Amino acid sequence: MMRQAGIYITEEEISKIEVVDFGLSSLETEGIQVLNLVNTDRLAAKVLVLFPNQTEPEHWHPRVGDDPGKQETIRHIRGDLRFYVDGPDTMEEGFFVPGKKDVYSLRNELILKPGDQLTFEPYEKHWFQAGPLGAVLYSFSTTVRDGLDGFTDPAIERITIVQDDK
Ligand code: ZN
Predict the structure, then answer these.
(1) pLDDT tens digits, residue range 47-83?
(2) 61 C-alpha to center of ligand 1: Å?
(3) Buried b (16+ CB within 10 A) or exposed e, 84-118
(4) 26 exposed, middle or buried (CB, 10 Å; 0-12, 13-18, 19+)?
(5) Å from CA of 121 to ligand 1 middle
(6) Helix or strand (DSSP H, E) at 12
(7) How many angstroms does the Cα of residue 8 sit away from the middle of ligand 1?
(8) Lesser CB count within 10 Å: N end or C end of the chain?
(9) What is the pTM of this model?
């Protein structure tokens, strides 16, 4: 999907795409695929992919010590993408993950077109979802500490733990 969006990616980078299921073991419903292009102690750039109808859970990027928290700009590249932010309930196209309406508090719907950008300040909650085409987007930000992100859903663990079936 990244290549279909016209983004040049090496074979080595393909092997480094991070597949994140947030510890929910329901990847195709709630999850995201991430290629980290750069992550220093000051800046980061990623390519993000959502599969068709996949949802990135509601989260925010908290302050960490002296760091005021991640400031993030996303830019939509390809597919169909909805973002949910603070504001009046305008939800029309999107849907709640079945049985999880209570862990998605934001209902202000922004329908993004390729080329649209949004910037989030630390602590500004957001969640996003692809439509039937899936979505490819860029994320540009200050340094990333994904392991410390806050999630509305208490069942989420950002660092995936792979366990053997018993
Ligand atoms: Zn975010």
Answers:
(1) 999 999 999 999 988 887 777 778 899 999 999 999 9
(2) 7
(3) bbeeeeeeeebeebeebeebbebbebeebeeeeeb
(4) middle
(5) 9
(6) helix 11-14
(7) 24
(8) C
(9) 0.90
